[in-house]
């Protein structure tokens, strides 16, 4: 790890000296950093010896990197900032376990929450940064949810679904105000990112070989790059530049976000490029929110909302909220969600109406939830 540490230090110094962002990307068997202009032509390993790293995000203020590992069915974290008490890429911690295929991951840097998609269980979930108070936000009308992007300043979340009815949707970060934004001329919507300054949504379609953008409500859609992409997967943005990973070229590419010109290759020869993020504080600007002060006085989850008072208190799935709207009732039943093999003890009780596949099964007998 010594040489890797030196390379990361060099990348950080070069990035600071030339005001260039760093690109953080998952590479299945590791998570890496590369400078955004690819000046050195090589990447630095942040954490190695992984199994199937897919989605990646970070909390810049605390120097934490999160990633999903599909094979290990978990979300993990490590520290990247060089002033932490941990050696680079060490101190790996399992944050959330019992997942099936977590393809999308996003960190709410203001509300201090993790959101993720699971394309096998067809759910979108949220939890505290340490994995506690896990809650299912959506399980109905999802087919193959993949990429996930957050806009905490406006308290909305966005995701792609490449199932039988491919589309891009939005909702409040508390699960309210769900809406389909794009469902025409869309097939395999993989990458998704938000331009926080210009309030634009960008997405990449691997089947139709394009990158398009639109307003955050889905209006004013226009093409950015068309016809020359091979298999774009993940997408991110910094300043005037878009960056994306491509499965077929096994590379990271870039272009101008406005006209799609100045297309260039940032890094090639990647083992298996997956998700990508710009690791820069400009991607996580600070803004005071109702959840930033004493967790909004919520006992468990404080979730940002587009509806006044612009947040809502929520409980782990299966646990009810008291009439005060702030406090969750004591847990009196076992909680669990199904997955491909066996029982996972996470957040499901007998009181909620949920699809049958959510029922807990232990030794062949249902427990802790009701058939609906």
TrEMBL record:
InterPro entries named among the record's database cross-references: 6-blade_b-propeller_TolB-like (IPR011042), Cueball_EGF_LRP_Nidogen (IPR050778), LDLR_classB_rpt (IPR000033)
SMART domains: LY (SM00135)
LDL-receptor class B repeats: 112-154, 155-198, 199-241
Keywords: Signal
Domain of life the protein comes from: Eukaryota
Residues making up the signal peptide according to the UniProt record: 1-19
Protein name, per record: EGF-like domain-containing protein
Lineage start: Eukaryota, Metazoa, Chordata, Craniata, Vertebrata
């Amino acid at each position: 790890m010594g040489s890797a540490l030196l390379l990361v230090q060099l990348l950080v110094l070069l990035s600071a000296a030339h005001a260039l962002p760093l690109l953080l990307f998952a590479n299945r068997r590791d998570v890496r950093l590369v400078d955004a202009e690819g000046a050195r032509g090589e990447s630095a390993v942040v954490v190695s010896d992984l199994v199937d790293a897919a989605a990646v995000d970070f909390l810049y203020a605390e120097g934490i990197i999160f990633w999903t590992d599909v094979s290990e069915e978990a979300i993990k974290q490590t520290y990247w900032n060089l002033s932490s008490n941990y050696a680079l890429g060490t101190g790996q911690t399992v944050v959330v376990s019992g997942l099936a295929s977590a393809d999308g991951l996003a960190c709410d840097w203001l509300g201090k929450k993790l959101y993720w998609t699971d394309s096998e269980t067809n759910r979108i979930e949220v939890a505290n940064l340490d994995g506690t108070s896990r809650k299912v936000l959506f399980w109905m009308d999802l087919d193959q949810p993949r990429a996930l992007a957050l806009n905490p300043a406006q308290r909305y979340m966005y995701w792609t679904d490449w199932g039988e009815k491919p589309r891009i949707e939005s909702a409040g970060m508390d699960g309210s105000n769900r809406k389909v934004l794009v469902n025409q001329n869309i097939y395999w919507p993989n990458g998704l990112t938000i331009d926080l300054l210009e309030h634009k949504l960008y997405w990449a379609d691997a089947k139709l070989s394009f990158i398009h953008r639109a307003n955050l409500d889905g209006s004013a859609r226009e093409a950015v790059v068309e016809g020359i992409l091979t298999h774009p997967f993940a997408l991110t943005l910094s300043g005037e530049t878009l960056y994306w990973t491509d499965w077929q070229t096994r590379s990271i590419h870039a272009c101008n976000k406005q006209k799609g010109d100045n297309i260039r290759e940032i890094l090639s020869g990647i083992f298996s490029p997956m998700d990508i993020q710009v690791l820069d504080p400009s991607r996580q600007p600070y803004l005071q929110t109702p959840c930033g002060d004493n967790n909004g006085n919520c006992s468990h989850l404080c979730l940002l909302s587009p509806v006044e008072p612009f947040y809502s208190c929520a409980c782990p799935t299966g646990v009810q909220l008291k009439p005060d709207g702030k406090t969750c009732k004591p847990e009196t039943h076992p909680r669990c969600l199904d997955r491909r093999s066996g029982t996972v003890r996470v957040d499901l009780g007998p009181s909620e109406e949920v699809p049958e596949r959510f029922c807990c099964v232990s030794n062949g007998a249902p427990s802790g939830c009701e058939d609906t």
